[in-house]
Structures are given as C-alpha cells and as structure tokens.
Automatic annotation (TrEMBL):
The lineage of its organism: Bacteria, Bacillati, Actinomycetota, Actinomycetes, Kitasatosporales. This is Glycolipid-binding domain-containing protein. It comes from Streptomyces rectiviolaceus. Residues 1-21 are annotated as: Disordered. Residues 7-21 have a biased composition (Basic and acidic residues). It comes from the Bacteria.
Length: 204
C-alpha cells in the first residue's frame, strides 16, 4: 500500500498551496485512494476519498474543501451532490461525462485506469467534471490523453515502470506531461512527490 505525501503549488507562479498526505491500494473490486490536505501553515484544508471499480469508473467520490463537500459517483454519466458550508443547502447535478478530476493526484491515476492506454494507442478524448478549489465548483472540460512511452528504471526494489502521458486541454490547446508509476504520480503540473514510504502498486 503506497503511502506518502505530495507538495502542491500553483502551476503558473509556483506559489506553495500545501500538502496532500495519502495512501492508496488496489483491491478485489478496483482501487481506492484516501488523503488529507493541509495548507502551507499545516492547517487542515480538506480530504479526498475516491474508489474506482475494476474498469476505472468512479463508484464513490467524497471531497471536502474547507467546509464545502462533494459526494459523487458514475451514475447516468456522472452525478454529484454539492453541500455548502452551512450544511443547509445541497444541490444535485449531473453531466454526460466519463469521470471526475481536480487538483488531487488521485484524479490523474484514475483517468489512466479508465483509459487503459498503451504507447500504440491513439490520443484519446475524455470528458471530465472538475471540482475547482476552494469551493469545489463543478466545471465540465474535455481533454486528450496519449501515452507517449513506458520506461523501466532500476531501483533498489527492482525495476520501476514509469509511464509518460501527454495531456492536452481541448479548449485551449495547452499541453503538459505527467509521469506515473503504478498508482503514484511522480510529477505533474502543480505537484511534486515529496515522500513515498513503499513502492507503487502494480495493476494487472
């Protein structure tokens, strides 16, 4: 079970945004990721609990940011309930999308599990609902994902397979690279893996 923490920063000006302490693991029905998020001061700012089925579909998502909350799943596309800080209002919504995304590294791993790309695969379009900080406002976006290459790197624990993806925002054409090994993001815009206590999990 990989356990560690990421540092989060603004991808444009590199302003520190805090840390995300996580653990994750594949299981008989899919994959689960749980994390706690903190501000640069160490103050708790939220949490992520994401469970995928064996096909990579989000069967349960629970997000907390400050006092905002999202509960969501892949139902009729994707469906979510967003609750305000007072807890007195909850709004339900739905979108014809494939999955969810946001600032957590969990969503990058989840998208790769959903798409199951190989280096021979063509670039694949995916529609996602993003929950944006700090109030978890939903926004539907389209991306194109391509797996450029998979390389084996020698480590003390044996070879580590690193996948390099190219992700394109279809509304702006902006492209960026993401490096993932198993269920751990090694590098991506806005985050760095700072500590990992055990090797990434491998998927069948």
């Amino acid at each position: 079970m990989p356990r560690g923490h990421y540092s989060l920063h603004d991808p444009h000006d590199h302003t520190p945004l805090g840390e995300e302490h996580f653990h994750c693991a594949p299981g008989p029905s899919g994959w689960r990721y749980v994390s706690q998020r903190t501000a640069p001061s160490g103050e708790p700012t939220g949490s992520v609990d994401l469970a995928l089925d064996e096909l990579g579909r989000p069967i349960r998502l629970e997000l907390h940011a400050r006092d905002w909350q999202i509960r969501a799943a892949a139902i009729d596309g994707v469906t979510w309930v967003r609750t305000d800080p007072t807890g007195t209002h909850a709004t339900e919504d739905n979108a014809p999308a494939h999955a969810f995304t946001g600032t957590s590294p969990a969503f990058l791993v989840a998208t790769t599990r959903l798409l199951r790309l190989t280096p021979a695969s063509p670039a694949t379009r995916v529609r996602l609902v993003a929950f944006t900080d700090p109030v978890l406002a939903p926004r539907t976006l389209d991306q194109s994902w391509a797996l450029l290459k998979s390389e084996a790197h020698t480590t003390d624990n044996g070879p580590l397979i690193v996948d390099e993806y190219q992700v394109t925002a279809l509304d702006t054409g902006e492209q960026h690279a993401i490096h993932i090994s198993g269920d751990v993001v090694l590098s991506a815009p806005g985050l760095e893996l700072e500590n990992l206590e055990s090797p990434p999990s491998t998927f069948a």
